[in-house]
Amino acid sequence: MSLKTFAGGIHPPDNKEWSAHKAIEDCPLPAEFIVPLAQHIGAPSVACVEVGQQVAKGEEIGSAKGFVSVPVHAPTSGEVVAVENRPHPWGTLLPAVVIKPDGEDRWSTELQPADPSELSADEMIEKVRLAGVVGMGGAAFPAHVKMSPPPEKKINTLIFNGVECEPYLTADHRMMLEEPERILQGAALLQYVLGAEQVVIGIEANKPDAIALFEKHCAGTPVEVMPLQVKYPQGAEKQLIAAVTGKEVPSGGLPMDIGVAVQNVSTAAAITDAVLYGRPLIERICTVTGPAIREPKNLRIRIGTPLSHLVEVCGGLVEEPGKIILGGPMMGFTQLGFDVPTTRGTSGLLLLRAEDVVSQPESPCIRCARCVQACPINLLPTTVAAYARRDLLAEATEYCAMDCIECGSCSYVCPSTIPLVQAIRYGKAAILAKKRSSQVS
Amino acid sequence: MSQQLYLSSSPHIHSGETTTKVMRAVIYSLLPACGVAVYFFGPSALSVLLIATLGCLATEVVCQRLMGQPVTIADGSAAITGILLALNLPPTSPWWLTLFGAVVAIAIGKQVYGGLGSNPFNPALVARVVLLISFPVQMTTWSAPALVGSGLDLVTTATPLGEWKNAVMLTGEMPTGLEGGLPSYFLGTMPGSIGEVSALALLLGAAYLFYRRILTWHIPTAFVGTVILLSGLFWLINPAKYPSPVFHMVTGGLILGAFFMATDMVTTPVSTRGMLLFGVGCWLCFISAGHAPMCFVAVPTL
What we know:
The structure holds 2 protein chains of 2 kinds.
Chain A: E1 25-26, E2 33-36, E3 46-47, E4 54-55, E5 60-63, E6 72-73, E7 78-87, E8 93-101, H1 121-130, H2 143-147, E9 157-162, H3 171-178, H4 180-194, E10 198-204, H5 208-218, E11 223-228, H6 237-245, E12 260-264, H7 265-277, E13 283-289, E14 297-302, H8 307-313, E15 323-326, E16 333-334, E17 348-352, H9 370-374, H10 381-389, H11 393-398, H12 409-413, H13 420-440
Parallel strand pairs in A: 1-14, 9-10, 9-12, 10-11, 13-17
Antiparallel strand pairs in A: 2-8, 3-5, 4-7, 5-6, 7-8, 13-14, 15-16, 15-17
Helix pairs in contact in A: 1-4, 3-5, 4-7, 10-13
Chain B: H1 19-41, H2 43-66, H3 77-87, H4 95-108, H5 123-134, H6 136-139, E1 142-145, E2 154-157, H7 160-171, H8 182-189, H9 199-211, H10 218-237, H11 245-250, H12 254-261, H13 272-291
Antiparallel strand pairs in B: 1-2
Helix pairs in contact in B: 1-2, 1-3, 1-9, 2-3, 2-4, 3-4, 3-5, 4-5, 9-12, 10-12, 10-13
């Protein structure tokens, strides 16, 4: 049987064998938590605690501002020792609440379990918002926004993303193997809230154990388990929708425009915690891996754990890393050092050696068309990138630069090592900046 | 951190494919055709191949030195141009003609436009057009490979396509026995340019490029498919006058053209639809060049 997938894409070595077989371990508490107030797309939260204040685990320490915003919570009980700018994974100094754990790890008494049968859909959405649940696949888009589509956009299909197509990462894989009930409870809650008729969980075929487990758990339930072809970026939202439904999200549109909603499996588990137990999103599974780390692991980490602590817990470094990457190798962000903390979107910490870092000089485009064949959304990356690099923004827009999902497949395959997606990313930012300035004037 | 820490925007891994590896694969894919040509045509074909390749490499060095640019002959692209040029020449080409072609290919066909990736036409074919217009006699004197042990190097003859054209012009009918030579033409005794000698050797090379995913099916399929479709139509209408599609397949350089010349990456479209259209368009040049009597210039402008 041929497995479903999308058109285009690439097959990078998945390198998941480093950590795929390792059960999730609880990461011990670090000496200090640095909880960033900005952790996702949308408005950052604002600190609502003061230096010297004692906080309990799960207590709100940053308040949401605006609809596309969620509060931030204390990862453990302890004392607020600073509210100041700290190094942030986005590569700059940003406000953070620094907490010194008291070692008791005491939950806030305000967090109470609830009976879902007594909750309305709106009450559930509010609980998810207050718990600070965001999409945990990487983009960290607030989950409650996706749970509240406008009434005219009826959601027919609800897709859970268990693809994890980024090489090296195994956090979602372990989550699916070890906590399927938490995921499926969240799936049922989301189906109730959105009123979706069809519920599908998409898993890449390189995780046969997870597929078998979910098929067992989902037998006799409305949830359909769909094995998908192993191909990057199968886990990108629009590619997953294309594979599962055969439908294309229109250019510039959202999945809800074609009646589809997508959530990561880990997000579903966080929704379970929020709705059933009132527990905020203060921890997640993170894969610490790569050739430069001594002992790759899947860790249950608290949000705000410094990277240096993760390195220590994983047996230290084999050698000085050439690249420190938060996330996977295809779409992750390089870091300046180990002093930055993890956020809700930190699916992995990948440490590459200097020799793993490609520094092939760029050569002229030979128009081999590999980028065109690899592009999962059917762009001409070489053309769009060439326009973007020359600041020909109108032409770049005409060639659909804004539709680029920045998966990096084009740069990966380019034999001339042209930074294609990097140029397109620059072009997109320039186009948006131009649009904003013309709106102002 | 004691050593360099790299910061960059994603992706952080690469396929490891390089332009040089791609070019090398193309060179490897042309070796069977070169080998068969040298086997059948002897030292004359070898010298054309060597002069064309070395001439292209030398011209690239001279041009880049003159322009104060880094010398990039190691990327293999100039060598490919040299081999392709040689494959498009008769094995009897005099040394000065081959060398002139090599200089034209790299200097006029490639470097004046800015080098690799900037040329609008296939450099080897630019050279072929210039040679065809400048030296029509030398460029259309064809030889059949001599039988091994016959004591001869080459036997001057007409190409099967030329034979057909002449016969049709004189008598309006296809000469008898024209298609009898097809199986041996396929293997490697086809009178014509160096690269045309063996369709089989060319297809072997093309198969390797497909395997390496350097060649995609679009252009060759559109090109060959259109030729088969239309020549088949004419053949069905009047088989006494028009040869079968198989004849077109193994004579007249269709395989060389469709798999190696028309698929030149730099000068062809990158989109799927563009490649298909381009392949169909190649047929127009092909047919007007080889198959309409009296007109024999257009093939090289693929």
